[in-house]
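cron nightly-structures :: item 1 of 1
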Amino acid sequence: MKTRYEQIVDVREIASEKGDHIPSILSLAGQEQILPAASDKKRTLLLAIDVQNDFMESIGSLPVAGSRADVQRLTQWMYNNMASLTQVMCSLDCHSLLQIFHADWWVDKQGNQPKPFTVIRHENLIDGTWTVANADTAEQSLAYLKNLEAEGKKELCIWPYHCLEGSSGAQLENQFTNMLYFHSAVRQVKPLLVYKGQDPYTEMYGIIKAEYDDNKFVNHAVLEAIEAYDAIYIAGQASSHCVLASAMQILEYFAEDKAITSRITLLIDCMSPIAGFEEATLQAFDSLREKYGIQIKKSTDVIL
């Protein structure tokens, strides 16, 4: 390519307050002579999970250690494979203040809100350790916690306020955004943006469905998109939570079709776990590889 990686991504500005520079990116992209994505015979998809400011170390409210280097490796991989990467789909966490996993939802017997990372269980509502701040939400909140336990889902964790809709923390990381729109302009394809986590009564780690919801929502549009590609590469944050949940949901849906599950590759050096989940995450990924035939590779080992 005529454009150098450094003209698109300033590695010093990854996970910084500096914004993207889309106009200059589009100008650079106009100099390239790469065929449009529609001409690809082998169709490849990058599924970038939650590459957002609030998950970036040094600036995020819920930072993931290693995320800056992950973005550098991911954008370098996108650059190196520009002519063969057909499409990029990005999931984006998107929340409001009043959601069941935020502190405003709950109070203890003294009227205090829970601190970040507090775990609230069904029994805690029964014994009065925690109660909802708004009585109108009590019945549904109690039912949610009961159903989480009944279905063996993650326990409800109170997360720091993050990815609040319209906030800078909810935006895609700036240097990743530069590479995303450079790819979009060069390959003449619109990025696919998938918002998740807006239901106040549930948590949605994965891109396909919530941990539990009465409506049993499944994002079939995403599943249909994945089915349409010959190879799917997954990266993003955090590997222990939203990346793992997204991969598991996709694989469980296509469990009977190894022709699809075997197309999926985790770019293991373009994601990092939340501290304390390192070993469990690697074990979970190994289990997915054994069960579904996925691949786990470093970005430097994958040439499209």
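cron nightly-structures :: done
The chain has two domains: 42-96+163-301, 103-158.
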